[in-house]
Amino acid sequence: MKISPARWLKAAALVVVLMTLTAASSVAQRKSLGAFDGQTDVGGVMKPGSAVYDAAKDEYAVAGSGTNMWFGRDEFHFVWKRMKGDFILTARAMLVGRGVEAHRKMGWQVRSSLDADSPHASAVVHGDGLTSLQFRRAKGANTEEVKSGVTAPDVIQLERRGNKLLMSVARYGDPFATEELSDSALGDDVYVGLFVCSHNKDVVERAVFRDVRITVPAAANFVPYRDYIGSNLEILDLKSGGRRIIYGTPDSLQAPNWTPDGRALIYNRNGRLYRFDLAQKTPAEINTDFAVNNNNDHVLSFDGKLMGISHHSKEDENKSIVYVLPAAGGKPRRVTARGPSYLHGWSPDGKFLVYTGERNGAFDIYKISADGGEETRLTTADGLDDGPEYAPDGRHIYFNSNRTGLMQIWRMRADGSAQEQVTADEYNNWFPHLSPDGKWIVFLSFMKDVDSGDHPFYKHVYLRLMPAAGGKPRVIAYVYGGQGTINVPSWSPDGKRIAFVSNTDMK
Hints:
With 507 residues, the chain is mainly beta.
């Protein structure tokens, strides 16, 4: 039978429409899964599962059936992404409702294939609170496990470092507890994702995952201050603990200040300063005239009219020098005669700046008039003193010091007297930032494997919160970051949120 040209054109047009609709449907499905590429039921489940991403809440609702994930084969629902190399998978998670089986389970999984008997490693939280690193070493082999001492955690992390897998879990607010599988052989190209298994073929169970982060860490051979990976500008809600990525770049973005009017964040990128409009979600470069080699030590005055910066001056052997300019931009005015000087704080009355200065090989806290002049040395103890910041009432300056061993938070009166230690724990604590009402401190904590005198890029760190008068800190964010994450004051004016930077390789 012959087909007329007109009929052929109509048929061709229909095919194009169908292909377009199919492609659009595929794109829509990918978008609906957020950070993930696909979803599937693994094994012969009786009741199909599902995964839906709520972009407004930045949450994943995952439902799954399946008899079990044990012995030589598994049944569960899996929302997944293909990945190679090293990665860090982190989320806050909760099973929904009381459930039917005590051993219903959810968590993160790394899997060689989507076959039911595939090798895998999984960070698993059960309905009764049992938590374990479960793994199948070879195709069809029985599942093994290493149990955690933490019961019913809601923060779950699974990390791959070469052939090593680490499960880190915590109840939100507590530090991680970690279990390790040192000889994993899953292959380089794997499926990673979130899963739910009901432990009952006739039942569908549900879990909600939020603050999901799939992080690609820096290469082991990266060179600090030469090699950089991507940056996410995040906002943390202190009441809920929820995090939201508002902007990302494939290079190094550092140290967000929150403007006193609440409308913008100021950060540095590649030596220049930018204002990020929170309503428009767009950055704009700030004119700093000749000062285009700024580090991440920049501070706004309490009234928001002026900005202090730390620019590496060619005329001073590329040492960091403190300058002041209008917050909206303009020509900087030099404040410190000597360098290196790294700005961290502005007095509430606008009269003084405090900064870290290296003088004769020693790092101490100095104070100077915002108009310039002679500097006053406030600390003289052995060790590194850094990160000074005024309390909102102007009576105290908080800072960090490793004079007693590990880096800890200290405070002193504004004249440098009555220096006292505020934290005393097993972490290296940096950059104390006071809430607008002066009642709370947020600071950055490095693990003990980091030298107390260093605050490097690209490490596992905590953001922690504690009363300004002293008390037990609690973790408010589990972050891959470090240098540039929260170097400068970053509270919102209403004291309800914190801005910070996390890192991941976006190449």
